[in-house]
Specification:
Length: about 425
């Protein structure tokens, strides 16, 4: 099966998570992604949080599948010449170095554009160009705080809290991938490349737009009726942390199920969708609530929503999270078990769909990774293991026209 991005050559000058997540996605869909890494060390994540001594860490393997690895010291004259050759032959260069690092290396946008006017140069930075923090180095949690997510996550009586989901890193990589694909289509129209930039702060803000919605509602009316603070608690002038409240118009909460005393994940998320109220009452054995004016409408329920959740927890007390969902799904109630990572790793549906895949690795043996979350009717991405450091250096240099002798000289100059 041919892949839509076949023939697109990408210089993958990325490291850690945000950039690698972007280029990995493009590699799954057929792009030839050449990961350029510093000789001897490579991407820092190869060594971070290793679980097997002397083998690439999962942090690296899970973000760099389907790529080739070229070691190249782009600060040496010889290394710069190789990179220039590569730039002339490539469609996209992706990087997420600290601000200014690529320029210091001598590869400014102007220089890259001069070398190859068709090249798309895609960058991730912590903050956007011209931002008063544009010089900052940024990691995941820094972005979650700067993007408004942390101030609105967690419980009202605790500190701002970051999410386990990589809103700053992988999310930014996904935004960048959309930018690159857009620029590729644009190039088809104009024949020219362009600069594509995504900041981690902006990508987090893009996912926090409902909280900006809430800020404006709060400014206007002074309260947010779907938050636990309503109607008994106090609101200040900023969007509060709402615990596990539903973010839309449907109240919801994480509720205890059988075994919660010993199992930290024996919970379900339960949503009280307005039109499902009647089936909820029937499921709970509370048919009298259907017409009770204190319960019949969403507005009437809100002042005692936590008493309702308590009643639902009493109903859940003798049911596991899976049993509960199996009953509730029949009543069309939006709900799900709180799944642990262990349960996700072994979930047969996720294995069957290719969302969780096991891939071979030359040194590690096989490892689990997250496959493509995007499903196509005409493409089934095949996830392959990540490359060893420099595994494809000679192959890529030979493709660029370097002879064995010239490759030997690059070795001697410590450029590869
Ligand atoms: N050959 C020669 N030098 C190389 C090289 C190569 N193949 N690859 C990288 N380098 C150099 C860079 O040019 C830079 O040199 P300089 O500081 O002398 O200009 C140096 O390695 C370090 O790069 P840097 O990006 O500053 O790494 P860091 O470990 O200090 O910072 C981050 C890491 C992630 C904080 C930083 O890169 C950053 O803020 N990136 C943008 C936001 C981002 O993507 N964050 C991470 C999300 S997962």
């Amino acid at each position: 099966m041919s892949k839509p991005l076949e023939g697109i050559k990408i210089i993958d000058f990325t490291h850690v998570q945000a950039g690698p997540a972007c280029t990995q996605l493009l590699a799954w869909f057929g792009a030839d992604v050449i990961k350029v890494e510093r000789p001897g060390s490579g991407d820092v994540t190869r060594n971070q949080l290793r679980d097997i001594p002397e083998a690439d860490a999962l942090y690296f393997t899970m973000l760099n599948s389907n790529k080739r690895s070229l070691t190249l010291d782009t600060k040496t004259q010889e290394g710069k010449e190789v990179l220039e050759k590569l730039v002339r032959e490539s469609d996209v260069l992706v990087e997420n170095f600290a601000p200014g690092a690529l320029d210091r290396m001598g590869f400014t946008w102007e220089r890259l554009n001069e070398l190859n006017p068709k090249l798309i140069v895609a960058s991730v930075k912590g903050f956007s160009d011209g931002h008063h923090y544009e010089d900052l180095k940024v990691y995941e949690n820094v972005a979650q705080c700067a993007g408004g997510a942390a101030s609105t996550t967690g419980f009202w009586d605790g500190p701002p809290t970051v999410s386990a989901a990589a809103l700053g890193d992988s999310n930014t990589g996904m935004h960048l991938a959309i930018g690159i694909l857009t620029a590729l289509i644009g190039r088809g129209q104009t024949g020219r490349g362009q600069k594509v930039a995504v900041s981690m702060q902006d990508s987090v803000i893009n996912l926090c737009r409902v909280k900006l919605r809430d800020q404006q509602r709060l400014d206007r009316v002074g309260f947010l009726e779907e938050y636990p603070q309503y109607p008994h608690g106090e609101f200040s002038d900023v969007v509060p942390r709402g615990g596990n409240a539903g973010g839309g118009g449907q109240p919801g909460w994480v509720l205890k199920c059988k075994g919660w005393e010993t199992d930290p994940n024996a919970y379900i998320y339960f949503t009280i969708q307005g039109h499902a109220w009647e089936p909820i009452c029937r499921a709970l054995g509370k048919p009298e609530w259907i017409s009770d004016p204190n319960y019949a409408t969403a507005q009437a329920r809100q002042p005692h929503i936590f008493d309702i959740f308590k009643t639902i927890e009493e109903w859940l007390a003798d049911k596991t999270k899976f049993e509960a969902v199996d009953i509730l799904r029949k009543f069309d109630i939006p709900c799900a078990p709180v799944l642990s990572m262990k349960e996700i790793a072994n979930d047969p549906s996720l294995r069957a769909s290719g969302t969780i895949v096991e891939v071979p690795h030359k040194e590690r043996g096989s490892y689990l990774t997250v496959g493509s979350p995007i499903k196509f009717s005409g493409l089934k991405p095949e996830i392959t293991g990540s490359p060893l450091l420099g595994e494809h250096t000679e192959e890529i240099l030979a493709e660029l026209g370097y002879s064995k002798d010239q490759i030997g000289k690059l070795h001697t100059a410590k450029a590869i």
